[in-house]
Design a protein that fits this description.
60s Ribosomal Protein L30, Chain: A; Phosphoribosyl-aminoimidazole Synthetase, Chain A, domain 2; 7-stranded mixed sheet; 30% helix; globular; disordered N terminus
């Protein structure tokens, strides 16, 4: 029963509510709730190769040629700085993890009522520059001034193409695969903290140069995974790829396990966490494993392909480390700890949300 995680009765203003009427917290929907909604309300046809499913961030459509269309949709809600760049890249990443090439971008842009023409021009310029950088065409969308919001909101949509034999899915992880983490965590979350909470970081003793460096994390080491995904797919037979976003690294691994219906055993003790990320998370009492992690890439491959992919990524100066192994089901994630294995539960919401509550 999908509402088993919610108490059957709640009380708001003296009025009793059943589970379905209980107000939801900020962040992604509970996985059980989302799964039930997708299973209940999904309509697909024979051209849909990959439809809506937990962990699968882009749909795949057979358009009757030698290539599939890959279609993704993602909003930007945690920050408004560089929102045009964010919007292009977070959607581009979902295309990249299919082994596909991003081609066409659309955006819905909602501006608050106090916006001026310069605000709109800035976002359009950011989108244009990002599309130009990644050779994507900005082909349309919708722009309006929206009552009731405090800052700009962008919802992006990306379409890409992939040769049918090169398609990669989240669900493709195989028993015996190694789980790789490409780059580190938590790039996007660190940049958000630097851009949205600079004064608080200074108050916690973080030096200005570190904050300035972290502001630039969206560009270096970068929140995009397109280059890393291309190198991985060109150098090895990649079985599965996934970019951990909301809920951080842990939720990204859980989503691979659920999508592929496999058990994944991971060693979280030596995960590559950027120095600034570790310091910022400590300042705000956040678990870096649950902080929005765009810029990292999760890949599963056969052990025999490890040397090739490590060599290719190394030539590109892209960090990569083995963090786990894929086993036969059931679908779950087990963390290696002293004395044995412990099952990991997904974060109920992204850790970054805590910084907006203080």
């Amino acid at each position: 029963m999908i509402w088993s995680t919610v108490p059957p009765l709640a009380c708001v203003g003296g009025r009793k509510l059943d589970g379905k009427a209980r107000p939801l917290r900020a962040g992604k929907l509970d996985l059980d709730v989302l799964r039930s909604l997708l299973e209940t309300h999904t309509l697909v046809d024979s051209q849909v190769v990959v439809g809506p499913k937990i962990g699968e961030d882009a749909a795949v459509i057979d358009v009757g040629t030698d290539r599939y269309w890959v279609v993704a949709s993602d909003p930007v809600t945690f920050t408004s700085e560089e929102i045009g760049y964010y919007g292009v890249v977070v959607n581009l990443n979902d295309i990249a993890t299919r082994g596909a090439t991003p081609r066409w971008f659309l955006a819905t842009l909602l501006f608050p009522e106090n916006s001026v023409i310069g605000d709109v021009e800035t976002v359009f310029s950011q989108i244009h520059k990002a599309c130009q950088r990644f050779q994507v065409s900005f082909v349309g969308g919708h722009t309006e001034i929206t009552p009731g919001i405090e800052r700009v909101i962008l919802s992006g949509h990306m379409i890409g193409e992939v040769e049918k034999e090169r398609l990669v899915t989240t669900s493709g992880a195989r028993a015996g695969d190694l789980l790789l983490l490409v780059k580190g965590i938590c790039i996007e979350g660190t940049s958000i903290m630097a851009r949205e909470k600079e004064s608080e970081l200074l108050a916690h003793g973080i030096e200005p140069p570190a904050i300035q460096k972290a502001r630039n994390f969206i560009f270096d080491p970068g929140i995009e995974v397109l280059r890393a995904a291309r190198i991985a797919c060109d150098s090895a037979f990649v079985h599965s790829m996934h970019d951990p976003t909301e809920g951080g690294l842990v939720n990204g691994i859980v989503e691979i396990a659920l999508a592929s219906e496999k058990e994944i055993q991971v060693d979280l003790e030596n995960i590559y966490i950027y120095e600034e990320s570790r310091a910022f998370c400590k300042a705000f009492d956040l678990d870096p494993l649950g902080v929005i992690a765009s810029g990292a890439l999760l890949v599963t491959i056969s052990p025999g392909d490890l040397a090739a992919i490590e060599g290719a990524l190394g030539e590109g100066a892209i960090p990569v480390q083995v963090i786990g192994q894929v086993m036969k089901g059931p679908a779950r994630v087990l963390a290696k700890q002293k004395g044995g294995l412990k099952e990991l539960e997904p974060f109920s919401r992204d850790e970054i949300l805590k910084i907006f509550e203080t």
